[in-house]
Design brief:
With 354 residues, the protein is mainly alpha-helical. The chain has a domain at 63-302. It is 74% helix and 2% strand. The chain contains 14 helices and four strands. The strands form two sheets. A two-stranded antiparallel ribbon has the order 1-2. A two-stranded antiparallel ribbon has the order 3-4. Helix 4 (81-98) packs parallel to helix 6. The chain is globular. The model has no long low-confidence stretch (mean pLDDT 85). Its main location: membrane. Keywords: Cell inner membrane, Cell membrane, Membrane, Transmembrane, Transmembrane helix, Transport. InterPro entries: ABC_transp_permease.
């Protein structure tokens, strides 16, 4: 009887381990499924031109999703990234077209590198505001970032009276030309935005895996109280992740404005939803403490390919929203199932050893 019970437990543990492995590989499985599906049903899906275009779309979502991953790992959420995208795009466009008016007939113009640095700084500052609201004023992340979502969008609209900053070619005599390179330029056959994504992704993955701040991010998300008691400066960790999220959103604002050579205050509307979907689909746990940059990048590919593939098939944008919503729900359900199964497998393996 004991032998039979032991055999049954061993079999259950093996089955559970196999199922757990499949759940951990769900992002790869989803990526393979969407690529296979659209390769069959979407015309010219695998053409070189379309693959390059999709990679640029994926890059935009991947930037936001990387910042969102760090935030979610700490147990937070950042709803303001889409509005930061819009505001930072308007900052870049305004600096290129109008410079900064110092009154008394003096206007300061900046070259493209300076414009990009100022824009990135704006994104980081907004992220710092989110961090301060959450750490110093104890505002819930959902409410704090919802508030900054409206504030950032409002400032984006106020900066131009709701109008677009068009034709961001710049003027040679003011050294404001060359902005198009970031969004439309290529290096070694790949868009510049893809190279920027590779650099930021490698840096983020290195930080998450090999640095003290990376270990602290996971510790805070796993158990914030225990992290505080162990000497981790939780507030600094949270400040870092929200500032990084703002930095990533600023990059997206720059890339979109550069690609379109125009800035519009409504840019980035609902981008935060795609970022959350990519992070969760990539294995980031909404309860915090678990996630990887690599998984998030793959999740961004799934969301990007799904969006572009549906457009190529002529699916209504309304149905696209429904499908994305279902993807998010399924990803969260699978994540919760994975957590429960992980606990069960661990218990069965301990019982087997005992």
């Amino acid at each position: 009887m004991t032998t039979a019970t032991t055999t049954t437990n061993a079999t259950d543990a093996t089955s559970g381990s196999v199922l757990l492995t499949l759940m951990k590989l769900r992002t790869f499985i989803a990526l393979f499924a969407v690529v296979a599906f659209f390769s069959i049903f979407a015309p010219n899906f695998l053409s070189t031109a379309n693959l390059i275009l999709m990679s640029k779309h994926v890059a935009l979502n991947a930037f936001l999703a990387m910042g969102m991953t760090f935030v979610i790992i700490t147990g937070g959420i950042d709803l303001s990234v889409g509005s930061i995208v819009g505001l930072c795009g308007m900052v870049a466009g305004g600096l290129i077209l109008n410079g900064i008016d110092l009154q008394f007939g003096y206007t300061v113009y900046f070259n493209v590198v300076e414009v990009c640095l100022i824009t990135l700084a704006v994104g980081i500052v907004i992220g710092a505001v989110n961090g301060l609201l959450i750490t110093k004023l104890n505002v819930a992340p959902f409410i704090a970032t919802l508030g900054t979502l409206y504030v950032a969008r409002g400032f984006a609209l106020l900066s131009s009276g709701g109008q677009t900053f068009p034709n961001l070619v710049g003027k040679p005599e003011l050294a404001t030309t060359g902005f198009a390179f970031l969004g439309s330029g290529r290096l070694l056959g790949l868009p510049v935005s893809i190279w920027v994504l590779i650099v930021v992704a490698l840096a983020a993955a290195y930080v998450a895996r090999y640095t003290p701040i990376g270990r602290h991010i996971f510790a805070v998300g796993g158990n914030e109280r225990a992290a505080r008691m162990s000497g981790i400066r939780v507030d600094r960790v949270k400040m870092f992740v929200y500032m990084f999220s703002g930095f990533c959103a600023a990059i997206v604002g720059l890339v979109i404005s550069s690609e379109l050579m125009a800035s519009h205050p409504a840019t980035g509307n609902s981008f935060e939803l795609n970022a959350i979907a990519a992070a969760v689909l990539g294995g980031t746990s909404m309860s915090g403490g678990r996630g990887t940059i690599g998984g998030t990048i793959i999740g961004a590919f799934v969301i990007g390919i799904l969006s572009d593939g549906l457009v190529m098939m002529g699916i209504s944008s309304f149905w696209q929203m429904v499908i994305k919503g279902i993807v998010i729900i399924v990803a969260v359900v699978v994540d919760q199932a994975q957590r429960r199964l992980q606990q069960q497998v661990t218990l069965m393996q301990l019982a087997k050893k005992g």
